[in-house]
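HUMAN: Spend a minute on the protein record below and explain its fold to me.
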Amino acid sequence: MAKMRKTYIPLLTLLFLAGPLLLSGEDYQYQYFQEKDKGKYVPFSDYIPRVRLHYKIVPHYVEDFYELYGKKLYYNENSLMKNIERLKTALNCKFRHPSEALVRVESEAEYLKYRNLMFMHINMLIMRNHLRIAARYDKHRLYFYNLDFAKEIRESLDTAEKYYKEARPYWENAKRYARRASDVKITTDLGTIESERYAIMKGETDFDKIIDTHLKRLDKKKKTLDRALAGGKR
C-alpha cells in the first residue's frame, strides 16, 4: 500500500499543475481567432471596426458631453469647472442622429424643438455653475471683525464679480433658445426641461434679477471694504 501511495501522489500533482494550462489553452481558443491567410491567432476585438470602437469610447455629440455632466452632493470648484468645460464643448458639437436622441423623436418639428430645448438647458447649467463658483468667493455678510482682512476679502469679491458677470451671457442664450423652442407648438418627452422653458417664458425664472441683486450687494460690500482699506472702518 505504501508503494501505491508513492506512485499516485506525483500523478495527482501533475494533473493539478496541468489543469490551469489546459484551461488557459481552452480560453485562448475562445478569445482569439485564427486568420486563414496568415495562420496566426489575433484577438476578436481586432475584428470590431475601429471607427465603432472610437465612437463608443470618445464623446463626439452634444448628448455625449451632456451625459458627462455630473453634479455631486459635495462639489468643489474643480468639479464645477470640469462641468462648465464639458458643457461648453457640447454647445459646439453636432447632435446625434434623431434615432439616437435622448427621447423619442417622431417628426422634424419635434427634433427641432428637442435641439433648442437641449441648448437652452445646457446654457442654464453653465450659468448655474458659474453662479455656484461665484458664491464660493462671495462674502455674503460683512461683520466688523472681517474688516481686519479687508484686502483679502476685496480680492475674493473681485473674483465673485467676475463669475457673476460671466454667467449672464449664458442666461441670455438660454432665453433665446427658450423662445425658439416655444415657437414649435409640440410637447416633447423632455418633461423637466419643458417645465424649465415654460418658467423662463412666463417670467417665473428670471436670472437677470438674481444676478443684478448679487452684483448690487457685492458693490456695497466692496465700498465698505474700500473705506476700511483707506483707513476708516465705517
Notes: Residues 62-230 form one domain. Helices lie at 2-31, 50-57, 62-67, 77-90, 108-137, 150-182, 191-201, 207-230. Strands lie at 32-34, 41-43. The CA atoms of residues 23 and 221 lie 73 Å apart.
